[in-house]
Amino acid sequence: MTTLIKGARVLGGDPADLLLEDGRIAAVGGRLSVTGATVVDADGLVALPGLVDLHTHLREPGREDAETVETGSRAAALGGFTAVHAMANTDPVADTAGVVEQVWRLGRQAGLVDVVPVGAVTVGLRGERLAELGAMADSAARVRVFSDDGHCVADPALMRRALEYVKAFDGVVAQHAEEPRLTAGAQMNEGDLSARLGLTGWPAAAEEAVIARDVLLAEHVGARLHVCHVSTAGSVEILRWAKSRGVQVTAEVTPHHLLLTESCAESYDPVFKVNPPLRTDADVQALRAGLADGTIDAVATDHAPHAVEDKESEWAQARPGMLGLEQALSVVVQALVEPGLLDWAGVADRMAVRPAAIGRLDGHGRPLTPGEPANLLLLDPAARSVVDPAALASRSRNSPYAGRELPGRVVATFLRGEATVLDGKALR
Ligand SMILES: NC(=O)N[C@@H](CC(=O)O)C(=O)O
Ligand SMILES: [Zn+2]
Ligand SMILES: [Zn+2]
Fold first, then answer.
1. How remote is the CA of residue 257 from the centroid of ligand 1, in Å?
2. In contact, 357 and 398? CB cutoff 8 Å
3. Which of 28, 38, 280, 347 is such that its CA lies 20 to 30 A from the CA of 366?
């Protein structure tokens, strides 16, 4: 299989041709010509390394009515991703080598992106005792990221033990930072608006307190900590402080926390209910600045598909979570590239290079140079389109961007040299 991409702007630079052969980038240069190659016209398109998501909910096993490994993989490929980390809050929970290997195999069968299972930190996500972290790390799935996401590892002694344990195989604990005692019954960001809307508040301090505690624990035991879906200005400050001390901490922000604010809740439309909640405009600005200066390492989607009956109810009854894979890059273009906060190299760094490094993934987030695995996407930055949830590849419809016009269209995605998406359509 040989593909010749003509005239792509690698990281937004001057147009060049890329030859993909045997799963690798064989050559990059001006006016390459090869007989028998499939030619892809990339005039005006930006080439980026295939995106890597550290935080995806694929819902299989257990809620295949909301998403499967295959449908979520298709959504990912359409969004320009070549690897996604599948969160462990499935049914059964991914807390054994057996379950993570099952998810890993389903990903291989779908063949659209590399599906990298996340292992649960505690048995059943119950926060009582550690799951078999070593067995998951040694399994065929080679788990390196462990998370009870959906739940916080609230017990500090258990969190400390998890951090110590994963050091042995260079793993990382990805914390859903939410002090449960401060968020009982919480529905949205705590502030004047929650008071006016009569919805129980989720205070910024419930996130920040756990991050502060965990960076101190990570420093004390010398382990790697990753913070999921950072949502407040205060969290960015704590991370900046921790990094200045040399703590091995990394953090992610979601596309929705980079674009949307708590004011979405005024509609009482539960599509905007999410954990952690949408915050204030000042938080959004601080998150953008934190991502731009590298305090926040990565954009991660927290793609959280939910079935209609779990989402289209009264606000208080609806499950938290929103779709993200297919629009992630467009949101980053709107929130950071267009305002001049990130260039294309910066987008590649925060959406491919650093997430691959945090997950210790080989072969992803690599430069687009000869000899490297041909994992890449082609983006039309000039295209704009209105999001139609009915047209999404996800099995669920809970997109917070419905009816919004967003910039950028993923035209093609290549996984090890094979197109998974061409002309904006998934090939399998
Ligand atoms: N983000 C959410 O609101 N929901 C996630 C869980 C999580 O990421 O905490 C889910 O699994 O639905
Ligand atoms: Zn979470
Ligand atoms: Zn999540």
1. 13
2. no
3. 38
